[in-house]
Specification:
alpha/beta; TIM Barrel; eight-stranded parallel beta barrel; 12 helices; binds phosphoenolpyruvate
Length: about 260
């Protein structure tokens, strides 16, 4: 982390878990155990039907609400889709785009990820742009070049002022939901390469202002070490964000200097 230049962000990704009726209780429990931190944005990215409840209940404990996906379209005949305008209207502050599960199960392309990021930025929502390599790509030593490509594709046509508001989440696909975490050195190497790519595209000032998260089986035990790395500015957390005590421990790990 480097708080001098950029925000620390701890974002939970609830995926298709929890219920709207359980949101308040979850936050009450989290409030009891989580440290009061002012220098870290804590976000819970929930299914769309829970966002409004999260916005209201989260005010009390400084937890922001986030979405997990957004439509590329502004409005109209797109049954089942949710626009950036709708997310902004109910108070979402962040939204995940390009999660590997959406890329895999919904065939989301890099061009769509880019359109989604632009749609969110146009409504003042910070996109959490997920990038990550498969195990096969890692074994073939393609990780850094592939991630650099994904970053370029996701940010195409986005100007520097807007890029500062983006969050990039490095999530190696082989580490998501598998219990296999990248080592802190592996995660640092790729997060550093992401920053280098942003530096090439936008210059040093913007590169050092962008928050880059690690995601992939981050948990209460390994968070402190991952977060001690200079280019890892927080985490995108799936499984461990479903348990208030574990999520609180990860938030507490951001208090280290
Ligand atoms: C995720 O889905 O973004 C994620 C990182 O999941 P997990 O922490 O469960 O690996």
């Amino acid at each position: 982390m480097n708080r001098k230049y950029r925000k620390t962000v701890i974002a939970g990704n609830w995926k298709m878990n929890q219920l709207n009726s359980g949101v308040k209780h979850f936050l009450e429990e989290l409030k009891e155990v989580a440290p009061k931190t002012r220098n870290c944005d804590v976000v819970l990215c929930t299914p769309a039907v829970m966002i409004q409840t999260m916005v209201k209940a989260g005010r009390d404990c400084r937890v922001a609400a986030g979405g997990q996906d957004v439509s590329t379209h502004e409005k109209g005949a797109f049954t089942g889709e949710i626009s950036a305008d709708m997310l902004a209207d109910i108070g979402a502050k962040y939204c995940i785009v390009g999660h590997s599960e959406r890329r895999e199960y919904h065939h989301e392309t890099d061009a769509q990820v880019n359109e989604k990021a632009k749609a969110l930025l146009s409504r003042g929502i910070a996109p959490i742009i997920c990038v990550g390599e498969s195990l096969d790509q890692r074994e073939k030593d393609l990780t850094v070049s592939y991630i650099a490509y994904q970053v370029r594709a996701a940010l195409a046509g986005i100007d520097g002022a807007q890029v500062r508001r983006c969050v990039i989440a490095y999530e190696p696909i082989w580490a998501i939901g598998t219990g296999k975490t990248a080592t802190s050195d592996q995660a640092q190497e790729v997060c550093c390469a992401i920053r280098a790519e942003i530096r090439k595209l936008y210059g040093a000032r913007i590169a050092r202002a962008v928050s880059i998260l690690y995601g992939g089986s981050m948990n209460a035990k390994n968070a402190a070490e991952l977060l001690s790395m200079p280019d890892i500015d927080g985490g995108l957390i799936g499984g461990a964000s479903l348990k208030p005590a574990d999520f609180a421990t990860i938030i507490a790990a951001t208090a280290q200097e």
